[in-house]
Amino acid sequence: MRQLCVIGDPIAHSKSPLLHNTMLRALELDGEYKYTARRVPGADTAAFLAEARAEGVAGFNATMPHKEHLVPLMDRLSDDARMYGAVNTVCLRGGEAVGHNTDGAGFLRALLAAGLDPAGRTVLLLGAGGAARAVAPKLLQGGAEAVFICNRTITRAAQLCAWDPLGRLAPAGMDRETLARLAPRCSLAVNCTSLGMEGTGGQFEDLSFVDALPPEAGVFDLIYSPAETALLRRARARGLRTANGLGMLIWQAILALELFLDRELDGPAMARLLEEAMK
C-alpha cells in the first residue's frame, strides 16, 4: 500500500487524514493508498524528507512549521510554491521531490464556489501574514481590480504589496477610521487574520466597517472554526453573502490529491462529499 501523509508539529488536530481518506474511499483507491498524520518537529524537516524517499512515500502535505523549510529541499518548485516561498504539498515521483502550494488556488476555487467571484471587485483584505500572502496574488489572478491590504503594522502590509509591480495592491492600517473609509469602496472583504478563531481569544475590537460595505458586497472569512465568526454573523445580519474557510480547506485538499494521483478529479462532487464528511 502506498503511503500519503501530512506532517506538522502539532498535527493531532489536522483534518487532512479525514479529507484525503474520504476521497480515496470514494475513488475506490483506499486499498492502494493510505493517508496518515505524522508529527515531525521543525528541526527534522530534511530528515523526514530523506526518510520519505527511502520508504517510497508517494507524497505528503505539510503544515507549520515546515512550509518554508521545505523550499530549499525540493528538486523542483511549482510557480505558486516559488511565488509564496512556501510548500504545502510534496510529490515524490521518479526520485524527484516536487514542491507545490495549493493554498492560494484552493482559496480562489472556494471563493468562486461561494458565489464571490473577485473579477472586477475592489477587495478589503484584512491581515498581511502567511495566509494573506497566499490570498492576495490569487485575488489579482482572479480579476480583482484592486486590493487594500489592511494590517496593524502598515510596513508589513507594504512588504506584501511590493509583490505586485502594477500597484494594484495598496497598504493600509486596520484601525476603525481606516476601515470605515475604505469599506464603501470595496465589494468583497476577506479576513486573513486569526481574529475570531476558536481557542485564540482574539476578536475584532470593532466591526462597524461591515455596515459600511456596499449592499452587494460579500465577506469571506478564512476561519472555519467556529463555522460562523462574529464577522460573518454581522455580515449575514446585513444580508451580505458570506462564506467561511471550510471551502478553502476542502479545495486545497482536492487539488493536493490531484497532484498526488496525477489525475483530474470531479472537484465539485468531491467538495460536496467532503462538506458532508466534515459535518
Write the layout of secondary structure elements.
Blueprint (H helix, E strand, L loop, with lengths): L1 E7 L7 H11 L6 E7 L5 H11 L3 E4 L13 E2 L1 H6 L4 E5 L2 E5 L2 H11 L8 E5 L3 H12 L4 E5 L3 H8 L7 E4 L3 H7 L5 E4 L17 H4 L5 E4 L8 H8 L3 E3 L2 H16 L5 H11 L2
Parallel strand pairs: 1-2, 1-3, 4-6, 7-8, 7-10, 8-9, 10-11, 11-12
Antiparallel strand pairs: 3-5, 5-6
Notes on the structure:
The protein has 279 residues and is an alpha/beta fold. Helix 1 (16-26) crosses helix 10 (246-261) and helix 4 crosses helix 5 (130-141). 38% of the residues lie in helices and 20% in strands. It starts with a strand and ends with a helix. The chain has helices at 16-26, 45-55, 79-84, 103-113, 130-141, 154-161, 176-182, 209-212, 230-237, 246-261, 267-277, and strands at 2-8, 33-39, 59-62, 76-77, 89-93, 96-100, 122-126, 146-150, 169-172, 188-191, 218-221, 241-243. Helix 6 (154-161) links the parallel strand 8 and strand 9. The chain folds into two domains: 2-101 and 251-277, Leucine Dehydrogenase, chain A, domain 1 (Rossmann fold, 3-Layer(aba) Sandwich); 105-244, Rossmann fold, CATH 3.40.50.720. It is globular and about 55 Å long. The protein has eleven helices and twelve strands. A six-stranded mixed sheet has the order 2-1-3-5-6-4.
